[in-house]
């Protein structure tokens, strides 16, 4: 058996959260792109509408209804891109979007129909060499995306765990 016929490794794992609670299983991605959406009759990808949770708050229910077509995550040669297919903004935080060694969290607002490079492979390699991680838990290969609600210094929600619906994208940086 030649090395090309062996099973391809995953490039990311997606976790869906409602406030501080992870909902459903981790979704492992092997294909170069994945749709993450609420509910489509012929959707292919990670369907958040199928994830059950008892006693959902009204805020979470309202936000889930805004996910719609969701996002498309795509692994490209220069990094990972997210395309906002919802009718509402998404909010993104990533180590490669932050200013190096900054004490301020940067959260980018991405309007419907727009895309953003949520993770830059080259910048990630540079950051891992120069960044000081002494301020607590930090994953240099993790991207956080919230639906419809922002967080951080410019918002009433200071932490992503205050957002009703959000994703954690854990990148397998060994499989670029």
TrEMBL record:
Question: Would I find Zinc among this entry's keywords?
Answer: no
Q: Which GO terms describe its cellular component?
A: heteromeric SMAD protein complex
Domain of life from the UniProt record: Eukaryota
Under the GO molecular function aspect, what terms does this record hold? Answer: I-SMAD binding; transcription regulator inhibitor activity
- GO biological processes: anatomical structure morphogenesis; BMP signaling pathway; cell differentiation; regulation of transcription by RNA polymerase II; SMAD protein signal transduction
Q: Which CDD domains does the entry mention?
A: MH2_SMAD_6
Alphabetical keyword list:
Transcription, Transcription regulation
What is the protein's given name?
SMAD family member 6a
Q: Which organism is it from?
A: Callorhinchus milii (Ghost shark)
């Amino acid at each position: 058996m030649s090395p090309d016929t062996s099973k391809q490794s995953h490039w990311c794992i997606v976790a869906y959260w409602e406030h501080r609670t992870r909902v459903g299983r981790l979704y492992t991605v092997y294909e170069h792109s994945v749709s993450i959406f609420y509910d489509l009759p012929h959707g292919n990808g990670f369907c958040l509408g199928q994830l059950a949770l008892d006693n959902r708050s009204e805020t979470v229910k309202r936000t889930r209804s805004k996910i719609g077509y969701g996002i498309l995550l795509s692994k490209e040669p220069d990094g990972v891109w997210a395309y906002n297919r919802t009718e509402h903004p998404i909010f993104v935080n990533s180590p490669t979007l932050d200013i190096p060694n900054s004490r301020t969290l940067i959260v980018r607002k991405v309007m419907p129909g727009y895309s953003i490079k949520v993770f830059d492979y080259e910048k990630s390699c540079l950051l891992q060499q120069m960044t000081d991680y002494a301020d607590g838990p930090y994953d240099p290969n993790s991207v956080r995306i919230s639906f419809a609600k922002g967080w951080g210094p410019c918002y009433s929600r200071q932490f992503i765990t205050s957002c009703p619906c959000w994703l954690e994208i854990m990148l397998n940086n060994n499989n670029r």
